[in-house]
Design goal:
- The complex is a heterodimer of chains A (372) and B (308).
- Chain A has 372 residues and is an alpha/beta fold.
- Helix content of chain A is 44%, strand content 17%.
- Chain A is built from 12 helices and 14 strands.
- In chain A, the strands form 3 sheets. Chain A has a 7-stranded mixed beta sheet with strand order 7-6-8-9-10-13-14.
- Chain B contains 11 helices and 4 strands, in the order H-H-H-H-E-E-E-H-H-H-H-E-H-H-H.
- The radius of gyration of chain B is 20 Å and the shape is globular.
- Classes of the chains: A alpha/beta (372), B mainly alpha (308).
- At the A-B interface, helix 7, helix 8 and helix 9 of A face helix 1 and helix 10 of B.
Chain lengths: 372, 308
């Protein structure tokens, strides 16, 4: 793996050098690519690199931006917050002022302080923690939805499509699960659908028979579960055994092939909010083919968000005719733009106004299909 | 019956099911404590290993083309009991016997070490993720009015009751009627005197670890089949609950362990039935504290008389 990564890095730099010699006369614009190229989550860094490099290649083929050719420069933060700060300083020192990254929320957050101060435009394609955009920074954007948007999405689906009569909201008492469950409950209540039950289970527990008997007694026909797959798997399995047949729904944390292993047939038809599979979108057919042709994997969740991050930057450059980051930031904030992940529009904080999640139906073979 | 009483009945069934398995694990704690006055902290891990062996044997037999469920279950039970007993015997041999006669805290630490070792050994050899088994025993009875509330009693729950009852009966007969059982009781009464009277107490102590481990393996098989999921960390929580059950019933007393397990299981189910279910552990442990305040030796424990 290490050898492979070295080769990939070598190849990447070789391509960059070739790019530089080929366009020696034209000016080049460096785009910083910050994320893990080594370490335990390097595969996510690879996804980001695949997306960014594909976007740069497509843009250069079409003549570049404002007469400039783009060049991607890889900066490895190993998903380590300390290294992320060092890398951010290096990016500033190298005079790079347009960055796609970082990847892990814990790395992105400390790096944003430096970028904001130095006027470096940063678009992250993978960090979903809400706190990143909460400091009111001007230079910070993302092309991926927030975790918390899943709650809104689930509540909307329940109200508009599922229309159950008696809803229960169950969670695992952890930050992720309880946060989502609370947001779903509150949004349902705001629209006049009061949950008949709101209850926590202990994560790691194996016996949910008492909870299921209670759900049955309350005649619940829809259960929203905020948490991860091990507990929901057991709840589904034990519900099936006890003849409790409500519709279940959960967040991205339950979308995992292990859910079907634990719950078996009971998984069929369970609803879940999960990130959209952009590689399935017909709009991206040519891009997917181009990436596959290079022997790379276009299906990673961050490939097309990274592609879109480059598009957001370069389209703003084309529209303003400038690379000045302050002009770009205010343009990005004010204008919607078409990208590989659909029409992208930002709010004041630099978050997407529309969720990149979709409601899916899960199946017992571990696959998922979009729910109507 | 009214909807309320049907609901109560359902929660009682749920509580007795989980209580039965607490009882099976609790006996291992109580027997060891009764004889050498120490808590075997590695006992929960033995239960976990019993579950893993069950899963491996069932998966193996199914892939070999054995289709008869009773045969699969009997083989799985025998293999799980045998392997778990071997582990129980080894724990005694490695973590307790070399330290016999030393300060009581020392074997306690070595048992905790054993527990950590076994847990990590299973993590390394089997992975730390959940291992799942498709339901083997399905179906059950449903009674009551489907339009108000339907009580279900699955065959699996029935099997848990039946197995617990049979195991307890056999164990009680063994302790009260057999020669070995008499030696066990003698050891519990006075270890030093029993030794002087020519009974091999090391053998008896090893035997209690083996019996406890075999019962934990039965619990491992039953709960493994009931929940269909096992991971290397289930032993810790199950061990904690069973230890609580043993203390609740009076540690050192076998009927006490059974009663303690059932009381704990039913309390948890009833709490979850009428309060938010996150309170079930709070109520269960408050009950433990209350009972120990009024009966420091547990429900059926004999108060220890200080010998002068």
């Amino acid at each position: 793996m290490n050898q492979f990564r070295k080769t990939m890095l070598g190849l990447g730099s070789a391509i960059c050098i070739m790019g530089m010699t080929a366009s020696a006369q034209a000016e080049t614009l460096k785009i910083g690519l910050a994320g893990p190229a080594t370490g335990p989550v390097a595969q996510y860094g690879d996804m980001q690199k695949i997306g960014v490099m594909a976007a740069i290649e497509d843009i250069n083929k079409a003549g570049g931006v404002n007469g400039m050719m783009l060049e991607g420069v890889i900066y490895d933060d190993a998903c380590d917050p300390k290294q992320a700060v060092a890398i951010a300083n290096k990016i500033v020192n190298d005079g790079v002022s347009h960055v796609v990254g970082h990847l892990c929320s814990s790395s992105t957050e400390p790096a944003t302080d430096i970028y904001e101060e130095e006027g470096v435009l940063m678009i992250t394609a993978a960090s979903t923690s809400p706190s990143i955009t909460e400091k009111g920074y001007q230079m910070v954007f993302r092309t991926i939805g927030l975790d918390s948007l899943q709650g809104t999405m689930a509540a909307q689906y329940i109200l508009d499509t599922a229309k159950p009569s008696r809803v229960a909201v169950v969670h695992d008492k952890q930050q992720y699960g309880e946060g989502l469950a609370t947001s779903v409950r509150d949004q349902l209540a705001a629209n006049g659908l009061e949950a008949v039950m709101f209850e926590g289970v202990t994560s790691g527990d194996k016996d949910f028979s008492a909870l299921i008997a209670k759900l049955k007694k309350e005649d619940v026909d829809f259960v929203y579960y905020g948490g991860y797959h091990p507990e929901l798997g057991l709840i589904l399995r034990q519900s099936a055994e006890k003849g409790f047949n409500a519709q279940f729904m959960g967040p991205e944390g339950i979308v995992n092939s292990d859910l079907a292993k634990i719950a078996g047939d009971a998984v069929e038809g369970v609803l879940a909010t999960a990130p959209k599979s952009f590689d399935q979108n017909p709009v991206n057919e040519a891009r997917v083919a181009a990436i596959s042709a290079k022997g790379e994997d276009p299906t990673g969740p961050f490939v097309f968000t990274a592609y879109a991050a480059v598009e957001v930057m370069t389209k703003a450059m084309a529209a303003t005719g400038s690379t000045d980051t302050e002009k770009l930031a205010s343009h990005i904030r004010a204008n919607a733009v078409d990208t590989a992940i659909g029409t992208v529009k930002y709010d004041e904080k630099g978050d997407l106004t529309e969720s990149t999640f979709l409601v899916y139906n899960l199946h017992k073979d571990g696959s998922k299909t979009p729910a109507q | 019956m009214s909807e309320f009483s049907l609901y109560l009945l359902q929660q009682l069934i749920n509580g007795l099911t989980i209580g039965s398995t607490y009882a099976l694990i609790a006996i291992g704690y109580t027997m060891v404590y009764g004889i050498i006055g120490m808590i075997n902290f590695a006992h929960g891990e033995i239960y976990m290993i019993g579950s893993y062996v069950t899963f491996i044997v069932i998966a193996g037999l199914v892939s070999m083309g054995v289709v008869s469920l009773p045969i699969i279950l009997v083989i799985a039970l025998i293999v799980a009991m045998f392997i778990a007993s071997t582990y129980g015997w080894t724990v005694e041999r490695v973590a307790y016997r070399p330290l016999r006669g030393s300060n009581r805290l020392i074997p306690l630490i070595s048992a905790i070490g054993m527990s950590i070792f076994l847990q990590n050994y299973v993590v390394l050899s089997q992975g730390s993720r959940d291992v799942a088994l498709p339901p083997q025993i399905t179906g059950g009875w449903a009674f009551g009015d489907p339009s108000s509330f339907e009580v279900t009693l699955s065959y699996m729950q029935l099997m848990i009751f039946a197995m617990t009852f049979i195991t307890m009966t056999v164990l009680t007969l063994f302790i009260s009627r057999s020669r070995m059982g008499r030696a066990c009781r003698a050891c519990a009464e006075d270890l030093g005197m029993t030794n002087l009277l020519g009974i091999n107490t090391n053998k008896i102590i090893a035997l209690t670890f083996v019996i406890g481990a075999a019962l934990a393996a039965i619990a491992g098989l039953l709960l493994g089949l009931y929940y269909g999921v096992v991971n290397p960390f289930v032993g810790f929580i199950a061990g904690l609950k069973a230890f609580t059950a043993a203390v609740l019933g009076g540690i050192g007393s076998i009927p006490g362990a059974v009663l303690g397990g059932l009381v704990l299981g039913v309390t948890e189910a009833m709490t979850a039935a009428f309060f938010p279910s996150e309170y079930k552990d709070v109520v269960a442990f408050s009950l433990l504290v209350t009972i120990l305040l009024f009966r420091p030796s547990g429900l059926l424990g004999k108060p220890e008389i200080e010998k002068v």
